[in-house]
Structure formats: structure tokens, C-alpha cells
Amino acid sequence: MKALTFKRYGKSPDIGFSDLSIPTLRDDEMLVEVHAVGLNPIDNMIPTGAFKPLLKFQLPATIGSDLAGVVKQVGSRVTRFKPGDAIFASLFDLGTGSLAEFAVVPERVAAPKPTNLDFVQAASVPMVGLTSWQAIKERAGVRPGQKVFIPAGAGGIGSMAIQLAKHFGAKVGTTTSTGNVALVRSLGADEVIDYKKQVFEKELRGYDMALGTLRDEEIEKAIGILQPGGKMVSLVGPADAAFAEARGLNFILKFVFGLMGRKIKRLAAKRDVAYSFLFVRPDGAQLADIGKLLQAGTVRPVVDKVFAFKQAPEALAYVAQGRSKGKVVVQIK
């Protein structure tokens, strides 16, 4: 089968197409014919080695995490799916990739593809959907009437997080450029800051939760708009000791991550705000819940651009620019 792989870590990861053998299945796994793959910024970061201590791959490694496709074969212990079923899933943190003609998908991370979505739309959802769900509902426990700040509302995470926060009953503030104001309002944003004309930390106050999608001083600014008792859930770091502990990392890495998170933790504590770092996990049950919302039209995927499989390197380069409205998808079939 053909797959887009990287052969080494670093500045020259040798990204290109490789011919690989179709993987064999364990009892709890499915062989899926991949129809479409949603790309995420981390797909560009992994080959650089930035996540090498955390994410284990056997090189050459297939790039990509999100997929939608059709089950071709199932292991002996698979009970929820059968050959011919259309599914979507995230393979993130499983040591394998999705930008290939076939992928091995553990049953526990897969969910039925919503019938009202095509494969391209479905492939755009898993990582941004799960990240938003786990940050807003699971980690922050957002309740109806609370205020949630989601920066970069027109991006992949932002466009999904706004919709899920609204579903959970929150009032949503976001930032975007002038050209995307109408888009984020259509997704449900209540307070929209045009960052070309306004500064969000001067305009917004009294928020209960902030989603950290922009790095460094932007995280610090977002903490400043939270009221006492508020929660900052960062997707971009800095990581902290609690994250290292949860992943069972060794003492040295726990110490390093503790140092990395010390400054932001101190700042948050001064404002009586809880800071935490979230590393999304694949979860088929949560993805099925998101699928029901998609099926009902409560939330909708936002797809910026679709690339053919042979254009996958160009698609990754486009994602790296950081300007997409919603998600970038590679269509394989």
C-alpha cells in the first residue's frame, strides 16, 4: 500500500511516499480502507522530533492521525463493527498513522461515521472534536451560563470548540480576523474580537474558562480575563508535572516538565485560576457522542480545503501556514 511517511526526526525528516505492506491485525483491531484524512498542526511537528519523548513511532512512520473510511477486515474480538461499515477515528498517540491507503484501527477508538457527512467531512472531525470535548466538558466541566474564551475561532480547533461550548450551554468569546467575523458568529460566538482592530485582554472580562490554543504570552493574557476560580486548559503548553505524572514519565522528565510549567502555574495561582495542559486521547465512545451531534446538525464540520492524496505534502505545507478556516483534508478515495 502507498503511505506518506517520514524516515527520520529533525530538520530533514525525508517526508515522501513509501510502499508499505498492509499491516496485520490484532484481535481487537480493524483493517480500514482510508477514504479521507484530516490534517492537524501536530502532523507537521511530529517529524521534527518535538514530541519524540512522548510519541513512539517505528521509522519509517506514517504521518497523520484522523481518518474516515470503510472497514475491510476485523479481528476476532471486534464486536461493534463489521466489514463494510463506515467509520471515523483518531489514531493519535497510538504509534501509527493514517495518511495511507489502509490503516489499522483499534475498535475502542472508532465510531460510526455520521450518515449525513461524506468521508471528507467526517475525517475533519476526530482530533478537533475530541480535543474540544475533553477540554470543555471533561477537564473544565463547563456548565450552562458560564463564559468560555476560545481564541482563533475560525481555525480547526476553534471552529469546533465554539460549537461544542454552545451545545454545553456556555456563552462564547473568541478572536478572529475581520474576514472571519461572520463565520465565527455563524458557529455561535457571542463576543467576537477582531484582533486586527481590538485587543482581547482589554475587551473581555469575567470568563470561567479559557482554551489555550496560542502560545506563550497569549496564554498569559488569556489567564488575565478569567475570574477567580476560572480554568485555563492549554493545548499548546507549557506542559506540567501533572501531565508527566499522568503519562508515567520518568523522574527526569517529570522534573523538566515541572520546571516548564512553573511560571504559568505561579501566574495562574496569583489570580486563583487553575492551569492544566491537555494532551488529547483517542476515545471511540466520545467520538460516537460527537457523531450524534453531527448527525443531528447540532454541530457541523468546517472544511477549508481538500487535497488529493498525491498532494499530501502540499497539504501539510498549507496547514503549516496556520491560516486555514476550519480543517484541511486529504482525500484518498
Topology readout:
Blueprint: E1 2-6, E2 16-19, E3 29-39, H1 41-45, E4 61-62, E5 66-74, E6 86-90, E7 102-106, E8 110-112, H2 119-123, H3 126-139, E9 147-150, H4 156-167, E10 171-176, H5 181-187, E11 191-194, H6 200-203, E12 207-212, H7 217-223, E13 226-234, H8 241-246, H9 251-270, E14 274-277, H10 284-296, E15 303-308, H11 312-320, E16 327-331
Parallel strand pairs: 9-10, 9-12, 10-11, 12-13, 13-14, 15-16
Antiparallel strand pairs: 1-2, 1-4, 3-5, 3-7, 3-16, 5-6, 6-8
Helix pairs in contact: 3-4
Indicate how many domains the architecture comprises.
Answer: 2
> Based on the structure given, which CATH architecture of the largest domain is correct?
Alpha-Beta Complex
Computed CA radius of gyration, to the nearest angstrom:
20 Å
What is the helix tally?
A: 11
Mean pLDDT: 94
Query: What percentage of the residues does DSSP assign to strands (E)?
Result: 25-35%
Quaternary state reads single chain
Distance between the termini: 13 Å
Uncertain segments: none
Number of strands: 16
Full CATH superfamily name of the largest domain = Medium-chain alcohol dehydrogenases, catalytic domain
Order of helices and strands: EEEHEEEEEHHEHEHEHEHEHHEHEHE
Helicity level, as a percent range?
25-40%
What does it look like?
This protein has 333 residues and is α/β, with parallel strands linked by helices. The chain has two domains: 2-125 and 301-331, Quinone Oxidoreductase, Chain A, domain 1 (Alpha-Beta Complex), CATH 3.90.180; 127-277, NAD(P)-binding Rossmann-like Domain (Rossmann fold, 3-Layer(aba) Sandwich), CATH 3.40.50. It is built from eleven helices and 16 strands. Strands 3, 5, 6, 7, 8, 15 and 16 form a seven-stranded mixed sheet that branches. The chain has a six-stranded parallel sheet with strand order 11-10-9-12-13-14, sandwiched between helices. The protein has a three-stranded antiparallel sheet with strand order 2-1-4, with no helix packed on it. Helix 3 (126-139) crosses helix 4 (156-167). The longest helix has 20 residues, at 251-270. The protein starts with a strand and ends with a strand.
